[in-house]
Amino acid sequence: MLNRIIFTMLSGSLLVSGCTHNRPPLDISNETFTTKITDNGIKLFVYQLDMEMPGGKYGKSGGGPPSGGQGGKGGPPMHGGRGGGDQDDGDDEVNLMLANKLKENRFCRNGYIELDRYHLYTGAIKIRGECEEGATTADRKAFPNS
Hints:
By secondary structure, the chain is an alpha+beta fold. The chain has 3 helices and 5 strands; from the N terminus they run αβββαββα.
């Protein structure tokens, strides 16, 4: 009986450790943050990270883009977070980088709503968002539409 308990515990720990992995840091080749303030004061942004992919532009296969081309994560938008889905494509690191960018430039002082997130076959991640607060006169001066 004791052997069965020990075997079950060891099997479970091996299974858990085999399913976890350490993702290498993202290899960012370019970061862009563009803003747009509409006439009625809505503050929009696009945050894009271009990344080097292992094995060339389309990954290790060297073929064309994966089927589906580009597609966003499904599910409802979340405040300052990512859309639905459980796939980890470095999203935690990307979310942290976006949070740092917004903290640095103070474009969205009260948070944001993620409108779209695209994982492009070129290795880029593009996030479109809308700030929770409306634009002030100072915002219009500090962030001309780009």
